[in-house]
Specification:
heterotrimer, A alpha+beta, B alpha/beta, C mainly alpha, A: alpha+beta, Arc Repressor Mutant, subunit A, 3 domains, 9-stranded mixed beta sheet, 3-stranded antiparallel beta sheet, 37% helix, C: mainly alpha, two-stranded antiparallel ribbon, 3 helices, flat
Chain lengths: 489, 479, 103
């Protein structure tokens, strides 16, 4: 990962760390591709099978085995490249040579100086643009379990057991530029990347399951000086852990530097239980990988037609979906409702509800609140939901009543909202009845009313609460508030 | 009982026409093996029972009128670096002693589908690294024509098997001359096809961009026949040329009228005088047969040895890293995995293999890549370009196969450089990826055979076999 | 040329033997260094060549875009494979503790 000493991304005052330190973070994300078979052979790419069943001569590194590249892996890698605004270029594979028991050939087939995707970027939802240096293809290793030690880790183990089911699974390694300045942005980057990968069908990208693995490169420096020595943090297994690990490591490095010490370039292991990083290995001793072009594979030069086809068929990305939903409903792209609904893939459903005559804002809120587990295509027909939004919009139902009807629709996979409401005896209260209730509540609590009149918005809660109780939830909260406001002015 | 034909095509014809049974043929060859194998040690493993069973099965097919392949009943010996499912494959190394692959090499499947019967796995220099078969961990093979001399290498066992009459044909592999040089030293025909013409799937790799599998035979026509059966695209090998196997047998008797034969005027020195004399006679014979001799130069040829001995060990150092005691083969136990690697590989590999691994590791290591491996890849291109220029003027090129005839055991084994020089004429074609073959042509010092090498451009097997056939005629060798 | 000026030194040989996981003792280091230095001495012939305009040739036959369809193929038999393993346990390959290597 290259480091520009004078990057154009400069932390804002709020982003700077105490003591005038600027945090520099780059992220390396490994993603398991959602192919049926492995990168270089036809064994299944499947999690959870009996150990050493998804194996073939290539997977095991048997003498005489030869790799053959999986077309779908290339397709998915190209989707990732395009989604991250990369250039796609003719590329080759290299061998990265090192010994480890879960490496069946004692070399990994990867991409080195001529990778498939280069020079891209990802714009975070909050607006910062993070450069993506490269996104290349490589094969995964097998899995080792360590037996006999106290913690299940290597140190103190008696022996290890290797399962090669995962060996050869296709990975794309996405390397960002060191453009990230806060741990929040790091978390945002990973979350957005995850959303993109899922939307384009490249990977299910689950950190907790290992189909997305994040390593953070962290350093600190005083602005205007060269970047500091960085440490690589491994074993970060959730977005939350990523934030904690970066915060810890930044603090650790600042403490070292503040007390006159220097940072040793090394790999550190994040211990989530203890909330700290430990030295794993010092980089100076690292193996010389002796990269050379993989002679068993030929160059990969995707045709212009193929690249264009991937571009044309790429689904709408989360950022674009959030924008579309924002335009539709008037809610901000950063609002929780928009973020959550897009994350769940339910934006098309909201559009469908609006297309069926529904009210956009209410459609968004209902979907956010009522369809947490429903997936991208909820069972409730869009037209059914549309009708419910209209009932509430036209004040025929209060918000509370609408919520109850919504729950029924979700439970039964649809229904006639008006009929359900009628069966429950729901009807919105007419405005004059509500006005009378508001006046009664004001009379019953003059202290709260006086505060409200003086401008204390929080005091309105007491009045609204009385009205809702008196009306048994049939009064529409928005109408109550509107009445109160008109009484005040 | 009819006489057993001595050629693969003769045997196939006789069996198909029911003049003789597959069992009679295999028994005859197995008897020959029994008679002389102790002296020669061509094999690491003779698969006599399986061979007889296979022969019986073919005879049953014939009796029942079921379809049989073009090589039905033809005995064949297979170099022991080709994977044979369930049958020990050792690469003549302690590190794979006892290992039985769970799959067949593509060429092994194709031969079996054609009806050929494997009689055994032949000896080689360990992991195909050598030119005399003295580097085998299981003892050397002896030249059947003079058992005090080497058969050449690395496919010494396969060459000796054919020369000793243990099988009419055999398979070897050629990375820097390992088919052609032993063919020349044993007085048989040996062919290295165009790189990519024959699938490498199942060949225990030595140098991936140089390795090719090819046949040994007593006649050029047989060599062409076997090449036809094993060649052709294989989806399991990414470097496999996407074309079907070419028809080659017909070329053998086509003659050389009108062909242009290249004579390399700046050929690196070092060949014995008798070898050069045979080469000149070969040119004369081809001229007499209607070809034209054209002088060509290949100025980069003298750098080929250096380029080869940087590229091949580099790729080998990576290809042989998988022999680590984890999944198969030898393991020397140790307190931790890292120590286990070091102890296993030290015990399992012979000296020449260790030398080449270290040389290759060095050539690729940080700080040296550009000076060594990187440079060697460029020299390789120069050599390929030299050939391209030459082939604009000629159809094939003739050189000696080996600068020397078969030498006595122990002569070169302590001097790696002297051994490497054995391949000086064969290495360039591996670097360029071109086909070449060795045809026996008279004798040299000590009455030992001399081989003449026919080189052709990529996918030039047809002109190569035409000239090979003509040389065979001139040498009086076709049977 | 290695830093010491000779084509390959004993330090180099010890280092590459370590990289290649080959345990060799001191006598072997000396012996191999002698042999390898001699071999590499011959290789200085390419230093004389002007290779500035020449591109590397990694592949003899120019192929491009060799791909296969994402279709499952039959797998190897687990028992057969594990039977060939030096040590196995619970259907997995068993190795001594993995220390001294990257995590």
């Amino acid at each position: 990962m290259t480091q520009d000493p004078l990057s154009s991304i400069i932390a804002t005052d709020e982003q700077m760390l105490e003591g005038g330190w600027e945090l520099i973070v780059g992220l390396e994300v490994h993603v398991e591709l959602a192919t049926k078979t492995k990168l270089f052979s036809g064994s299944p790419n499947r999690f959870g099978d009996e150990p050493n069943t998804n194996i073939d001569p290539v997977t095991l590194g048997l003498p005489g085995a030869l790799p053959v590249l999986n077309k779908q892996a290339v397709e998915l890698a190209m989707r990732i490249g395009i989604a991250l605004n990369c250039d796609i270029q003719p590329c080759i594979f290299h061998r990265k040579n090192y010994f480890y028991p879960d490496m069946p050939k004692a070399y990994q087939i990867s991409q080195y100086d001529i990778p498939l995707n280069i020079d891209g970027f990802l714009v975070l939802p909050s607006g910062t643009r993070v450069g993506v240096e490269r996104a290349h293809l490589e094969e995964d290793t097998g899995k080792s379990t360590h037996v006999g030690g106290a913690t299940g880790r290597i140190h103190g183990s008696d022996y290890s057991l290797i399962d090669f089911n995962r060996a050869g699974v296709p990975l794309v390694e996405i390397v960002s530029r060191p453009d990230i300045r806060t741990s929040e942005h790091a978390k945002e980057y990973v979350a957005e990347l995850r959303a993109i990968l899922e939307v384009i069908g490249a990977s299910d990208a689950k950190m907790e399951e290992g189909s997305m693995r994040v390593d953070a490169n962290v350093s600190v420096h005083k602005p205007g000086t060269l970047f500091g020595t960085r440490c690589e943090i491994k074993n970060v297994n959730s977005i939350r852990a990523l934030g904690r690990a970066i915060d810890y490591e930044a603090r650790r490095q600042i403490d070292v530097l503040d007390s006159g010490g220097s940072i040793r370039q090394e790999t550190r292991h994040w211990d989530d239980a203890e909330g700290r990083t430990h030295t794993l290995r010092v980089k100076e001793d690292a193996d010389d990988y002796r990269y050379f072009p993989e002679p068993d594979l030929v160059p990969l030069a995707p045709s212009a037609e193929w690249v264009q086809a991937v571009r044309d068929n790429l689904p709408m990305l989360p950022a674009a979906r959030r924008t579309a939903l924002s335009v539709l409903t008037g809610y901000d792209t950063q609002s929780e409702a928009v973020i959550v609904v897009v994350e769940r893939g339910q934006h098309d459903y909201v559009q469908a509800v609006v297309d069926a005559g529904g009210d956009a804002v209410r459609a968004l809120i209902y979907v956010q609140q009522g369809f947490a587990d429903a997936g991208p295509v909820p069972a409730v027909p869009a037209a059914d939901l549309a009708k419910l939004t209209v009932l509430e919009r036209d004040a025929k139902l209060s918000a509370t009543q609408a919520k109850t009807v919504l729950a029924e629709l979700v439970e039964h996979g649809g229904g006639d909202a008006a009929a359900i409401a009628a069966a429950k005896g729901f009807e919105a209260m007419d405005t004059s009845t509500v006005e009378a209730m508001v006046d009664e509540a004001i009379a019953a609590d003059p202290g709260a009313w006086a505060k409200y009149m003086a401008g204390d918005e929080k005091a309105s809660g007491a009045i609204v609460g009385r009205v809702m109780k008196a009306s048994q939830g049939k009064a529409d909260g928005k109408i109550v508030t509107a009445i109160m406001q008109s009484r005040r002015s | 009982m009819a006489t057993i034909p001595k050629t693969a095509s003769g045997i196939a014809a006789a069996i198909t026409s029911k003049q003789i049974t597959a069992r009679e043929v295999i028994d005859s060859y197995l008897a020959q093996i029994s008679a002389r194998e102790t002296d020669i040690h061509a094999f690491n493993l003779v698969t006599a029972d399986a061979a007889r069973a296979h022969a019986d099965a073919i005879d049953a097919d014939i009796a029942a009128g079921r379809p049989i392949g073009p090589l039905a009943g033809v005995p064949i010996a297979i170099k022991d670096n080709l994977c044979t499912h369930g049958i020990e494959t050792t690469c003549s190394s302690k590190i794979l002693e006892g290992w039985k692959p769970p799959y067949d090499a593509t060429v092994v499947s194709r031969l079996r589908d054609a009806g050929a019967i494997m009689v055994g796995k032949t000896n080689l220099d360990e992991f195909a690294m050598g030119s005399s078969t003295e580097n085998s961990a299981f003892g050397p093979t002896r030249n059947p024509l003079d058992t005090s001399r080497v058969p050449g290498g690395s496919s010494g066992g396969s060459a000796a098997a054919v020369a000793a009459g243990f099988a009419p044909v055999s398979l070897g592999s050629d990375t820097g001359g390992s088919i052609r040089q032993p063919a020349a030293l044993c007085g048989v025909v040996g062919v290295k096809p165009t790189y990519g013409l024959v699938s490498r799937y199942g060949l225990c790799a030595y140098a991936s961009s140089l390795d090719q599998i090819g046949p040994f035979a007593t006649t050029v026509a047989d060599a062409a026949l076997i090449t036809e059966v094993i060649a052709g695209h294989d989806a399991m090998d990414s470097t496999s040329i996407p074309q079907p196997a070419p028809a080659l047998v017909a070329s053998v008797s086509q003659g050389v009228v009108g062909m242009r034969i290249g004579r390399v005027t700046d050929l690196p020195a070092g060949a014995e005088p008798e070898v050069i004399a045979r080469l000149n006679e070969a040119f004369a014979a081809l001229e007499a047969a209607g070809a034209t001799i054209v002088d060509v130069t290949l100025p980069s040829l003298s750098y080929a040895l250096t380029a080869y001995y940087l590229i091949a060990p580099a790729e080998a150092s990576s290809n042989l890293a998988r022999y680590d005691g984890v999944r198969y083969g030898l393991r020397v136990n140790a307190v931790d995995t890292n120590s286990m690697y070091g102890a296993t590989r030290a015990a399992g590999f012979g000296d020449e293999v260790k030398r080449r691994i270290m040389l290759g590791t060095y050539a690729l290591s940080a700080g040296y890549y550009d000076a060594y491996y990187g440079k060697a890849l460029k020299v390789r291109r120069l050599i390929a370009e030299d050939f391209e220029r030459a082939y604009a003027q000629v159809d094939v090129i003739l050189t000696p196969t080996s600068p020397v005839v078969a030498f006595p055991f122990g002569d070169k084994v302590d001097d790696p450089m002297a051994m490497y020089l054995c391949d000086i004429y064969t290495i360039p074609t591996n670097l360029a990826g071109h086909p070449a073959m060795s045809v026996p042509f008279g004798t040299g010092a000590h009455g030992m055979p001399v081989g003449i090498q026919v080189l052709a451009p990529a996918l030039g097997e047809a002109p190569m076999f035409r000239v090979g056939g003509a040389l065979e005629n001139a040498a009086g060798g076709s049977k | 040329m290695s830093p010491s000026g000779t084509p390959i030194s004993a330090v180099d040989v010890a280092k590459v033997a370590r990289l290649a996981r080959l345990d060799i003792d001191e006598a072997e280091v000396v012996h191999f260094t002698e042999q390898l230095a001699k071999v590499m001495g011959h290789f200085s012939d390419i230093d004389a060549l002007d290779l500035s305009g020449v591109g590397p040739m990694t592949q003899p036959f120019p192929l491009v875009n060799v791909l296969r369809e994402d279709v499952e193929q039959p797998c190897l038999d687990t028992d057969e494979v594990l039977a060939a393993a030096p040590s196995s346990d619970q259907s997995r390959f068993r190795v001594p503790p993995i220390i001294g290597l990257d995590d």
